[in-house]
Amino acid sequence: MSVAALSNFDLPQFVNTLVSLGTAFVLGTLIGAERQWRQRNAGLRTAVLVAVGAAAFVDIGMRLNGNASAVHVLAYVVSGVGFLGAGVIMKEGLNIRGLNTAATLWGAAAMGGAAGADLIGEAVTIAVFVLMANTALRPLVDLINRQPLDEATTEATYEVRVTVTAEEMPVVRAAVLDQLDAKSYAVRGTTVDEQAEETLDLAVTLAGSSARPTELDEIVARVERLPGVEHAGWTMRTAD
């Protein structure tokens, strides 16, 4: 052990560091245990390491250069945890998983930063709110998700899709746009993809975020009766 290391050792400051890291460890364990119980990608150990790491960086910054240094370190902790959280987010088809776990890690880092800055009461408060968001709000989320979806008021992306022969495509496309215009639906854009040798798939995306299913059903029914149309329908994707 070097002389510098011995001279830099300060027992009261060391005890203060133990309190900060210990607080981050205990609270991080509580946050991580909930994620581990639900078998999430980032569980107990990840939450604890994020919390303790954030507390350690902030504590070191305060020891070296006071509160000003701690503020700078906190800024880097926020951005660093953002990259870490991106690693637990996965896309499976149209579904995205891990957003809540990534946000939980962000909350664990905030709690750890508060603990490292000797704001123990604030660290406990942050941990309580993170746990409440993941547990107390779950029944409310389930209740909302069980409610019937109202297509007329839900913000979403609507598409009218038509499978038509290449020969009749110009006429059918014009007819679809006329039908939508008659119902006062603005069009964001249209795309045409080749499905078979003589068959094309027309997709018309509406500009509005809400539509009436009955009106779209009427439009599709009329379009399906046009010459050359093999199939017509409409789809709705809820906003991200």
Automatic annotation (TrEMBL):
Gene Ontology BP annotations: methylation
Primary location group: membrane
Residue ranges of domain MgtC-like C-terminal in the record: 158-234
GO MF, any single term: methyltransferase activity
Transmembrane segments: 14-32, 44-64, 70-90
InterPro entries, A to Z: MgtC-like_C (IPR048640), MgtC/SapB/SrpB/YhiD_fam (IPR003416), MgtC_SapB_SrpB_YhiD_N (IPR049177)
Membrane topology label: Multi-pass membrane protein
Domain of life: Bacteria
GO cellular component: plasma membrane
Ranges of residues in domain MgtC/SapB/SrpB/YhiD N-terminal: 21-141
Gene3D superfamilies referenced in this protein's UniProt entry, alphabetically: 3.30.70.260
Pfam entry (one): MgtC_SapB_C
Role, per record: Virulence factor required for growth in low Mg(2+) medium and for intramacrophage survival. May be involved in regulating membrane potential by activating Na(+)/K(+)-ATPase.
PANTHER family per UniProt: PROTEIN MGTC
This protein's name: Protein MgtC
